[in-house]
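Note to self: the last two entries modelled the partners one at a time, which told us nothing about the interface. This time every component goes in together.
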Amino acid sequence: MEKYAVEGTPKTPSIKFDLANGVLEIKGRSIPENSIEFYKPLVDALDKYAVATKPATTVNVQLEYFNTSSSKCILDVFKKLESINKSGSAVTINWHYEEDDEDMLEAGEDYQAIINVPFKMTMVNE
Amino acid sequence: MDIFDIYDKMERNNILLSFKGEVTSDLLTSILQIMENKMEDMQEDVKTRKKVYNVLVECLQNLYHHMDEISETEDEKVRSAIFTIGKMDDKYTIITGNYIGNENIQGLKKRIDDVNALTKDELKDYYKRILNNGEMSLKGGGGLGMIDIARKTGEKLEYNFLEIDKKVSFFTLNIKISNQN
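The predicted structure of the combined assembly is written out below.
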């Protein structure tokens, strides 16, 4: 598997995971009722990537909304990245938030406090 | 039934939208879309729009997950819920109501009281702790909803249990969101 990609919907984000280049992008809204089901394929793809990582792994997260049901799944994704980082691929998580969206910035800081991976908080202009 | 009475009550309480019945995933998709459009038409500022949308998602999905836990064999009435979204004096109000088994009241009451007892910073720590250690239910509701609502609104969660009979009560949750500017 070189790539894992899903299109966004009104309730789920678009995901582009380029395993060959170590780049993962999650963008849009993540408010499904059942987020475990939605995030499982991504977690599986990360497991595959974990055995053949690139020297660097870049993760771009740009969410407009996410529900608490997703927050746990996103944490699981970040925990996978934490272990990938530990095993030798330099992981960076770029957490994007819109100008004035303090809740989204705070959510990023919550993850930053839990996950031992470099986070970069990036403001996006609306 | 006096339909004008319902209309009048909704008008006087500035209800933007209300629904009674079974809460499904498709319904929530539509409701969220309608509210998003309404707030845009009302030229609500982006910050308020986002806040209301976020809190609405949590409130309605709480209802959805709660309905999901009630067995299909239960009385249809018990599987039905109500919610209204209103705006009064620059403050959005989301009220939800649903039946709950009397045996579950103590647990829910304690969960809300615990959240209400915390300050802003304590809520942040509590959220992180539950996020990191809390068990996920099968559908992904992780017990974070109430904490998140309290955190985002900065208000106490108002609630009431109305005993209907020996088996069930009607649970009401009243959420207020101030204008963000």
